[in-house]
Design goal:
The complex is a heterodimer of chains A (about 450) and B (about 450). Helix content of chain A is about 60%, strand content about 0%. With about 450 residues, chain A is mostly helical. Chain B folds into 3 domains: about 170 residues, FAD/NAD(P)-binding domain (3-Layer(bba) Sandwich), CATH 3.50.50.60; about 120 residues, FAD/NAD(P)-binding domain, CATH 3.50.50.60; about 130 residues, FAD/NAD-linked reductase, C-terminal dimerisation domain (Enolase-like, domain 1), CATH 3.30.390.30. Classes of the chains: A mainly alpha (about 450), B alpha/beta (about 450). The structure holds flavin-adenine dinucleotide and iron/sulfur cluster (2 copies).
Chain lengths: ~450, ~450
């Protein structure tokens, strides 16, 4: 018998030089982190740009050097290797440490901003260049946020390079974050216009439909009118229409900034979401409560506005302040991002976001979107459920040969990508025939 | 109240229990020695590779069993007495049954090779095998796997993720070409080599040798070659696990013998899943072994009906299977033989990248599709099932191939390219892609007429 006569075009064998490159990348990140620590002191003032490069610059460069060699390491495919052995991604010491650091950062940012003054100075040069004014803590936050989306988005593009859905979706969130949540608002400021985020709408950006915002936008003239108009159209017309055709995903995993961060910086933590039935029950209680809370608050502030404060007095401002503190700051920021390494990357989107609540109702009740299950091919392995960031027990549907039509599904497509048996497909098809079981 | 006792909490036993519970409130007890709760055997590899933890492989949360009144007993059955309807466990406890289901699964094959029981030599079937593997890899830089196939490739990938050098030793010329046609086997073989995994083809294991520490240190082959290794994986298939049943009055051959109703020779004793050998009903047919997840599930569904008084015959639908070779997804519908059978022809297309291919076997006279193997393109099972049932011709199927595509949105489509190749090979056929996309409404009206 003759020996095998097959020669692949390329053979991926272990290449030690790639390990060296990755170590160099990691050391840059390490030095960059030191750069950040040093920059907390007044030393920054001497040369903000130099320290900007030593912190932001080195971390970015190091991360890219670390991610890129992965292309050469192995053929592209689902490589979730060692995720549950890695301390950072399996809720062990590393994860807790990271969680505490991020949470700590949010606490400082919201309630002790003076501690971050020197970091704010780091981004002064950038701020002047873009907005022609000094940086503030929110510009610092925006810079961190955008950079996280871009750098970790690049990681995602490399990791998912075999999957065009993932590539396009990632490029989309990177584009919207950089363009619509960073550059355009900066440019507007530079042009003495209201700083406006065209990709955020009520009720996620709840104050965009609060009377004082509407009032001040209208007073600011031409562009301001458009901003109010855009906000109303997006919240009340575009949202149901787009959700009908594409499901919730058009926003949550393609456009939204919170979703953008979750899908890029948060990707290493998606497996930490709780899949239990109990978590699902809590989720429904919480998310709809938040929705009711913000609707009531919005109605109250408008009534108060219309009656010039005579009717409800301090009640509405009490509501709006409480909402701003509890939901706007604590939930969406501190817990929403700080708890990535503990509860997964979509804590806010799943348990708190009122926009997700509305999109979810639309998706469940009136939409063409569903995840189709492929006959009896499911082997109940559990990859889909494990990697569903929304904590949906995808397997429980797939093994019953039932389509997945769930309010919380953000259409990230990861369940379909990790399924080793080709069982799941996100698709838009007839809105009437969605739940149907086993069509064969 | 009637008492149903099931030995084995794998997919066959559990599916039986769950479906019986849907139809009846009889008392149900499931006994197993492997793990306390039902888990997905097919996911063993992902635990080892760190994709999941054991708890993620449990398809039902732990409260599910109590809520559905399915008693779980964690223990080994050492004796079954069909005269007194008793099942006895290792700890001495005996349970009386009215109806008994044997769903004891499989065991890894070992062919009596010298040295096959040395430390560092093992198969991959159970959760305990996984624990043993965790121990064995501590000593391993180079691993040899004997026997290709679906479990072999999983074991290779598992070891590979731990930085271990892996070499396959296979009897065949190309990987799994005792099942796959040459083109397909070549595609898989190339993919394996691309990953840096070695393939020694047309080679037989002769002996497994021990080193000074008593563990495996090398193997020798029938080619006179000696390969140093610290681990040997034995994955030349599985056989029904009948060690317990062999000692009883229940009839066995290579598996527990059952008819098409999963009834054994003893009344009220049934068997399902990997452990059964289904007796042939027609002259010239052979007894069947169905050792898959999907079939275990189907067995359980059918058997549950019989147990609940609605005696139901097992009709195996149109054959299908799906698997993954490293990054390469594989699906098969209908029957594709590794060597061309009489009266059959095939059409093969492979993409330049060597990562997407289809192999369609059809009858030369009627041109109806017999089966298809697909690599690197996901297909809709329902659509192919329907086409095969309706005896659609290869031409019809190619023109409507878009309907079967199940790849994620935005993925490159290959239908045009596939049809172009067919037209080139069959001048005058002039096929054109007619259906580009699946449409649920159309499909449902089509199958309901
Ligand atoms: C690594 C691996 C990957 C696989 N991948 C696939 C795949 O992708 N697709 C596919 O279709 N199939 C796959 N299979 C095959 C599939 O897993 C089996 O066909 C299926 O699990 C068999 O189910 P079962 O219920 O018949 O038996 P099992 O799952 O083996 O369950 C039998 C149970 O009975 C217990 N038992 C046996 N004897 C006793 C006793 N005396 N007392 C108490 N308990 C006892 C055993 O411990 C075991 O837990 C794979 C198998 C393996 C090993
Ligand atoms: S069900 Fe799938 S697509 Fe939806 S959120 Fe979960 S992983 Fe993403
Ligand atoms: S990943 Fe696929 S095969 Fe595994 S449980 Fe989910 S749908 Fe089933």
């Amino acid at each position: 018998m003759k020996q095998l006569q097959i020669h692949p075009a390329k053979v991926y064998t272990h290449n030690p030089s790639l390990d060296v490159i990755k170590k160099i990348g990691l050391s840059f990140v390490g030095i960059g982190v030191l750069g950040f620590l040093v920059s907390l002191t007044n030393i920054t003032k001497s040369n903000p740009f130099l320290f900007f490069l030593l912190s932001f610059g080195l971390v970015t460069l190091g991360a890219l050097i670390f991610f890129l060699p992965q292309i050469k390491e192995s053929p592209s495919g689902v490589k979730n290797n060692n995720i549950f052995f890695n301390s950072f991604t399996s809720r062990q010491a590393g994860g807790w440490t990271l969680g505490i650091i991020i949470t700590g950062f949010y606490v400082l940012l919201y309630w002790f901003p003076e501690t971050l003054t020197n970091w704010v100075r780091l981004v002064d040069p950038l701020s002047y260049w873009l907005r022609n004014k000094a940086a503030d803590r929110w510009f610092l936050y925006g810079s961190f946020y955008t950079l996280a989306v871009l750098v970790m988005g690049t990681r995602m593009l490399i990791k998912k390079r075999h999957n065009k859905y993932q590539i396009l979706r990632t490029l989309s969130v990177m584009f919207f974050q950089l363009g619509f949540a960073f550059l355009i608002p900066a440019l507007l400021l530079r042009l003495n216009q209201p700083e406006h985020y065209f990709t955020y709408f009520w009720p996620l950006k709840y104050d965009y439909l609060f009377p004082y915002t509407v009032d001040s936008l209208i007073k600011s003239g031409g562009l301001g009118y458009f901003m109010v108009f855009w906000g109303i159209i997006m919240s009340f017309i575009a949202t149901p229409v787009l959700s009908y055709f594409f499901g919730k995903r058009w926003y949550c995993s393609w456009v939204c900034g919170c979703g953008g961060l979750a899908e890029t910086a948060g990707d290493p933590f998606r497996q930490l979401s709780d899949k239990s039935l109990k978590a699902w029950k809590i989720e429904r209680w919480m998310i709809y409560s938040v929705l009711v809370f913000i609707v009531v608050t919005t109605v109250l502030v408008w009534l108060n506005f219309i009656y010039h404060g005579s009717l409800l007095g301090s009640l509405s401002s009490g509501f709006s302040k409480t909402y701003g503190f509890l939901i706007g700051a604590v939930f969406s920021g501190v817990i929403g991002v700080g708890f990535y390494p503990i509860m997964g990357n979509r804590v806010w989107c799943r348990f708190g976001c009122p926009m997700a609540a509305i999109l979810g109702i639309l998706q469940k009740k009136k939409s063409k979107f569903r995840i189709t299950t492929n006959g009896s091919q499911c082997i109940s392995c559990g990859n889909c459920s494990t990697y569903c960031e929304m904590g949906i027990d995808v397997r429980s549907y797939a093994q019953r040969q039932e389509n997945i039509v769930r309010a919380s599904c953000v259409g990230c497509g990861i369940c379909a990508e990790v399924c080793p048996r080709g069982v799941l497909k996100l698709e838009n098809d007839s809105a009437d025939i969605r739940f149907n079981r086993n069509i064969s | 109240m009637e008492h149903l006792v099931i030995i084995g909490n794998g997919i066959a036993g559990i599916t039986t229990a769950r479906n019986v519970r849907k139809m009846s409130d009889m008392k149900i007890t499931v006994i197993s020695a492997e793990t306390e709760y039902f888990f997905s055997r097919t996911a063993l590899m992902y635990i080892f590779m760190g994709h999941m933890k054991f708890e993620h492989t449990k398809p039902y949360e732990d409260w599910f069993w109590k809520k559905n009144k399915i008693n779980l007993v964690y223990g080994k059955v050492v004796n079954v007495n069909t005269d007194s309807n008793l099942v006895c466990l290792q700890d001495g406890q005996c349970i009386t049954y009215d109806k008994l289901v044997v769903a004891t699964g499989s065991v890894s094959n070992k062919f009596g090779w010298p040295g096959q029981d040395l430390p560092g030599v093992q198969g991959l079937y159970s959760y305990q095998d996984l624990e043993l593997l965790e121990e064995n890899v501590k000593y391993t830089n180079h691993a040899v796997i004997i026997g290709g196939g679906l479990i072999g490739i999983e074991l290779a990938e598992m070891l590979h993720t731990r930085g271990i050098i892996v070499t396959f030793v296979i009897r065949e010329n190309l990987y799994w070409d005792n099942i796959l046609p040459q083109e397909d086997a070549a595609l898989v073989s190339r993919h394996i080599l691309e990953h840096g995994i070695g393939l020694k083809s047309a080679t037989n294991l002769k002996e497994i040798l021990a080193g000074n520490n008593g563990r495996v240190c090398a193997i020798t082959t029938d080619k006179g070659e000696k390969i140093e290794c610290q681990f040997v994986g034995l994955t030349p298939g599985v056989s029904p696990n009948i060690s317990l049943i062999k000692k009883t009055k229940i009839e066995t051959n290579r598996g527990v013998l059952v008819n098409e109703y999963f009834e054994t020779n003893i009344p009220n004793v049934y068997a399902a899943g990997d452990c059964v050998e289904i007796k042939a009903t027609e002259e010239g047919e052979r007894n069947r072994f169905e050792q898959l997840w999907y079939t275990g599930k189907m067995h359980g569904e059918v058997l549950a009906k019989t147990i609940c008084g609605k005696r139901t015959k097992y009709e195996r639908g149109i054959w299908f299977n799906s698997a993954k070779f490293l990054d390469l997804e594989y699906q098969t519908y209908g029957f594709v033989s590794n060597v061309k059978r009489e009266g059959e022809n095939n059409f093969y297309w492979v993409h330049n990248s060597g990562k997407h291919s289809i192999n369609m076997v059809f009858k030369t006279d009627t041109r109806e599709l017999v089966g298809i193997n697909v690599f690197g393109i996901r297909m809709r099972q329902a659509v192919f099932e329907n086409w095969i049932r309706e005896k659609r011709t290869i031409e019809y199927i190619l023109e409507n191939l878009g309907e079967a595509n199940f790849d994620p949105e935005f993925f490159k489509k290959y239908e045009e390219e596939i049809i172009a190749k067919f037209n080139e090979e069959n001048p005058g056929s002039g096929l054109k892609l007619k259906t580009k996309k699946f449409n649920i409404k159309k499909f449902i009206t089509k199958i309901s007429v």
